[in-house]
Amino acid sequence: MKNFLLLLMSFLMVGIYVQAQNPDNPQEFLNKKDVPIIDPVCGKGDWISIKYPCGEIAVAVAVPMSDKDNTASNGKPQANPYWEADLGRSYTLSILELSYDEIIHVNGLSNYYILTSDHAFDSEHLGEQLSKDCVQYVKVEKGLPNGSEIFLGGLKGRYLRIQSADAEEGVLALKEIGPGGDVEECGNGKDDDCDGLVDCEDPDCGINIVNVYQQDPSCTICNDGFISIQAGSGSGGTILYSVNGGAPFNCGGVVCPFPNLGEGTYTFLLTDGGECDKEVVVTLAAPVVSNESDCANGGFEDGNFNNWTTQDGQIEDDGDLDGSWINITSNFVANSFEIFQSGNVDDDNFPSGPTVYSPTNGTNIVKLGDLGGGNDTRRMINCFTVDAANADFAFNYGLVLQDPDHDEDEQPYFEWKVYVSGNSANPIDGDKVTAGTSFFENSNGLSVKGWECENVNLSAFIGQTVCAEFRVTDCTEGGHGAYAYIDAICQPAAPPSCDFALPTMSICKNQDIEIDFSELTNNFNQYSLAICQGDNTNCPNIMMTQGYNIEQVDLNTLASNLGISLVCGETYTVELNLASNCGNCVQRETFTYYCLDMELNYPDIVVCGDPNSITIPGTTNCPGCTYEWTPGVNMNNNNLQNPTLDGTTNLNTFNQPYTITATNSVGCIETATVNFLPDFNVNIDKHMDHCKVNITATISADFPIIASGFDFHVTDSYNNNDFVLTGTNLDPFTVEITGSISRDQPSNLQLSSYFTYSTPGIVSVGTCVNNIGFFEHSLFDRKWRMYMPNAFSPNGNGINDIYHPFIRTPLDADMCDSWTSNSSVYYLKMQVFDGWGGLMWESEASVPVTSYGGLDGSEVAWDGTVNGELVNPDVYVWQLTILSCTNEYGACSDDATPCSSSQGEHCSLANSPEERIIAGDVTVVL
Nearest-CA neighbor of 511 among 359, 403, 664? Predict the structure, then answer.
């Protein structure tokens, strides 16, 4: 273990915790063998054992495992559990020796990160820390033996964290951690850190291999092998790699990948640009492939053309060979003689493609010929001794031939024949397939066949040498080509396999039940698919259809296409029949058709506010169903119909979808997904006038919303009143909510709003609160009475020198002798006219919206002058325009005309407009 410190985690911790003081003498503090430290926030401490490397002392302050009840150390699963420490100052760490609880980590501690930083980690989320430039890290993927030394490559930082990469349910049960101390000084020939290793031998200086991963190629000809090397340089230099003596290069990262490798031995030399290097040797080996054929390399399982004769030639206009066959000595000729791994070639022209698989689940397939034209003809021949094992001789082929519509003897063709060696002119069996004839599919100028099977009985030739020959020839004009896929030579005849299964034996009405045929072998050229009444009985006589593919189909759709009406509670059988020249197969799967409706009504959720938990709303109509939610790690119980999500342990709790799967008593399945949608955008505008507070709220969302779904409230917290406002849609994504609140009593009105949203598909959870603002004001909705004198004398004697209305508000509606001058009139205009109707004088007054009182009438007083001159004694006409908010009768009367205008009295009237105009006469006496 590197000589720095030993941090004993609280998983093993025993002893008495003592409050550690900040020492005035650091050296005195460091000389103590054991220093108990208590975290000042959590009150939890970890012991520090100090070791003395070469007479020097290094110390660090440990912090608790995590702030969640030490769950990082007690073996309980949680998301990305971690332990971290403040080392007191920044260190360069080269080695970390890690011990863990072997009872909990039975297969070794694996899949975790070691992180360092000079800045304190500010988040529990692993992904956030890994994305920061200031954080350095090493990932350990494979489980290492307990107490193994882990090379950190000179990670530097004051803060050290060990964190599991398991995002949902990780366990981190640590026992002892020993980070490395002072590093080796490279190149001086000394053991600076007292570990017995000098310079390049020491991990502080040399090349250190953290991890070597290899993946062997999947077959002998497959270049899909992979090697990756994770290494670091203790000196901090850039590591250069060379492979098998090649030029050195920089990988640009801690992990250096080497993909697309075939089988073989690879020697990697790693250097740091200085004196240190290290060699890594990795051998990749392809898996051992069992013999696919009863003839040597008949199925190309060796990945080459061993035991095959491959030849190329040219044809003349008459179709004869131009000259002699030319032997192809190479095991590979591009676009002529190619061997592919099954599933490793894409061909959109091939009927059972686009991915070409071996029809008998073999490893390799050969492609003979191409579409390039050029008067080419190619053939390949395999000769073998017939015995009891291979007497039942078969093979498979598929074709893509261009069809230029020449005469038949000029067309591209494929030919096969089996003959006794030396007697090819008299074949035992064979066939010539010409473009444009005898094909199942013809399109885009191509004649194509999917995999076809041919079977030849060679039992009469046991002990003799027999040859199988395959030939592909271009058209005689030279402009069009052809190619064939060939596989499974010299195998017993293999009929198709009808391996399919229904997803469930209980089919429910109105549910999509897909029948998956992806596992079928592709060595058939005819098929039928039927639904039969009952259990394997009364099946209709369905004609076989020519073809190479059966598409995935919904069972209800299949029944409809077959003209079958499925009856609730009845039993049916799905029958599949596949055929080829090498045999056929039939498979039947039985199901019962149920008409049990399973309704899962779960709306999407908009989260308002910042709730700690949310119970998923929703209802089901699913008698006897069991439930399972995924993912379920943030739930109190993922088998409840309405589980509760805990938002305190995972920041993404309310940012991901959750799917419920309901299963009824007969095995029918229904699913529904609850999505969390982005919060509403809310903008509230408010405007206050004398009579009311007007509010307009604009609510928009990234999804369609409807006005009727909002329950929008405005509250008067002072008077404990609640007002519900309504809205309309401006567009599918925007709702405008408007309303007014009457100022019907004196108060200090403090307004705020909250709303919920609920439609059949979306609900809000939590209360969406938006502050509207604060209004301090007196409200004007009080009844008023007014007295207007019928004469005045503006003669300057101090008596009745001015003329104006007297506006009052009764303190008690039933007591007309009790008044207040604080009226409810907020606007007043008085005009005076002469006997001819001419306007002589006018005045108006109003109070601010925030006023606590109204007008009493004196604000529009007339002093009897016009343009500074007293008017002549006479009778004049006055008119008052009054604005107030009340729509109730004036006090002291309940009849329809409560005030006698002849007596100069006027009052507010019920159901009158906001503006009231009153007129009368006044006599001026001098």
Answer: 664
Q: Are 633 and 647 in contact (CB under 8 A)?
A: no
Per-residue CA distances from 37 to 62, 68, 741 (Å): 7, 19, 62
Q: How far apart are the C-alpha atoms of 471 and 432, rounded to whole Å?
A: 9
CB 41 within 8 A of CB 63: no
Which 3 state secondary structure label does DSSP give 890?
Answer: coil
Output the CA–CA distances (angstroms, integers) from residue 677 to 5, 604, 645, 647, 762, in the order listed: 49, 7, 16, 16, 9
Residue 628 and residue 639 in contact, taking contact as beta carbons nearer than 8 Å? yes
By the 8 A CB rule, do 600 and 659 touch? no
- Say if residue 9's pLDDT is above 60: no
Q: How far apart are CA 905 and CA 899, in angstroms?
A: 6
What is the helix (H) or strand (E) element at residue 129, kind and residue range? helix 126-130
Give the pLDDT confidence of 571-598 residue by residue, as tens digits.
889 999 999 888 889 988 888 888 877 8
Q: Which two tokens stand for residue 584?
A: 């056929």
Tokens read off for 44? 């939890």
Decide which of 388 and 438 is more confident. Answer: 388
Choice among 199-208, 291-300, 384-393, 876-885 with the minimum mean pLDDT? 291-300
Confidence of residue 16 (pLDDT cuts 50, 70, 90): very low
- Residue keyed to tokens 């890994």: 130
Query: Higher model confidence: residue 73 or residue 188?
Result: 188
How far from the centroid of its chain's Cα atoms is residue 226's Cα?
29
DSSP state of 758: B
Other beta carbons within 10 Å of 20: 16
How far CA 133 is from CA of 82, 119, 253, 267, in Å, comes to 20, 11, 14, 34
Residue 785: both structure tokens together: 């009475």
Lowest mean pLDDT among 77-81, 295-299, 374-378: 77-81
Over residues 687-707, mean pLDDT: 91
Q: Is the pLDDT of residue 18 over 50?
A: no
Q: In the prediction, which pLDDT does 75 show?
A: 54
Tokens of 150: 């882990």
Mean pLDDT over all residues of the chain?
A: 81
Question: Whole-angstrom Cα distance, residue 675 to residue 659?
Answer: 9
Amino acid at 65: M
Q: Which residues pair with 660 in a beta bridge?
A: 629, 672
CB 889 within 8 A of CB 836: no
Q: How many CA atoms lie within 13 A of 268 on its CB side?
A: 22
Stretch (H or E) spanning 683 = strand 681-688
Q: Are 885 and 691 in contact (CB under 8 A)?
A: yes
Burial class (CB in 10 A: 0-12, 13-18, 19+), 792: buried
Taking a C-beta distance cutoff of 8 angstroms, is the pair 255, 213 a contact?
Answer: no
Torsional sign, CA 52, 58, 64, 66 = negative
Q: Is the pLDDT of residue 813 over 70?
A: no
Cis (ω within 30 of 0) for the bond into 657?
no
One DSSP character per residue, 308-353 reads -EEEEEEB-TTS-BSS--EE--SS-BTTTEEEEETT--B-TTSTT-
Residue reference for tokens 């029944």: 559
Best mean pLDDT range from 60-64, 426-430, 581-585: 426-430
Distances (CA, A) of 813 to 185, 505, 516, 888, 923: 100, 81, 84, 11, 32
71 vs 283 pLDDT, higher one: 283
DSSP 233-259: ETT-PPPEEEETT---EE-SSSEEEEE
pTM: 0.47
The answer to whether the CB of 451 falls within 8 A of the CB of 355 is no
- The sheet that has 545-546: what strands, in order across it? 506-508, 583-594, 571-580, 526-533, 545-546
